[in-house]
Sequence to fold (326 residues):
Amino acid sequence: MKIAIFFVSLIAILVFGITARDAPAQETMRVAIPLFPTAAFPLLVASDKGFFQREGLTVEPIRINSAPTTYQALISGDVHAAAGAPTGLLPSHAQGVDVVAVGSWDNLVPYVWVTREKITDIRELRGKKVGVNRAGSKPWLIIQVLLQDAGLDPVKDLTLLQMGGGSQERVSALMRGGIDATLADALLEPIMKKRGFFVLRGKPTPFMNAPIAVKRSYATTNRTTVKKFVKAFADATRYLVDNREGTMRPLTQLLNSNDSEILDFAYQYLHVNSEPTLYPPEDAVKNLIRMSAYMDKKLGAISATRVMDLSILDELGTKRNQRAQK
Fold:
């Protein structure tokens, strides 16, 4: 009996030892994502559905509340990549740091106007108090561009009040009556209406809203790791386009709601606007460069080839994820 037990134990050790040696080693990537991470949603799906694990990756999402802070963490090496923080991409080059986007799944301006009083045109915000995130952040930059494109001077024609946090913090200020209007994440539109606010949608504007950004030096030294991350991200984006039910758990967690109307609206928005190939349209990249020039005119002279490196997408062949019709 003892001999039999010995041999069973020996076989178990050999089998499980071989299995452990054969299992892919898990590499770790720390990835910065927004405080309210709509622009990094495929990362949440990939974590929930095991796409990263299948590639041998452990991804640690780090929520950061502004683009400048995100890129400080990226430049210092505190994080290995950033997802969904477009407005720090070009300023990094002005600081002499070679940061590139290796893909982008969401390429439209992601906000709607939310107001206490009904308006039908942005120009009706003249004389109002508008809540905005800190200078240099994505909401701050987009508000500057939208106001100036509407013929409003952000300094002379209204009052911009800077506040920390994301859409939810600005909406809280709106509820308290501290501001008259703000930009809010498009996914929050039905929530805002349920709370009695008015929503004004702008025309769909191409904008590289959700780049995956890495330092070029990191991508060169750790190309295999970055390639695994991008593959899992692209696969998760395709998954969310095709699998409504499978996307519900991370979406429910993101919105902290089980309201079917809110979830249906959010999923439809993500379904329609997702680009599963991760190739951003040329106009979306150009508009990011144009908008960045509002922070520093010199940024407008930076070419798209300096801030984009889509070679990993080419190698992965993500164009196979292209859907026939959007």
Q: What stands out?
A: Residues 1-23 have pLDDT under 50 and may be disordered. The CA atoms of residues 8 and 154 lie 76 Å apart. The chain is about 45% helix and 15% strand. Residues 111-200 form a domain with the D-Maltodextrin-Binding Protein; domain 2 fold (CATH 3.40.190.10).
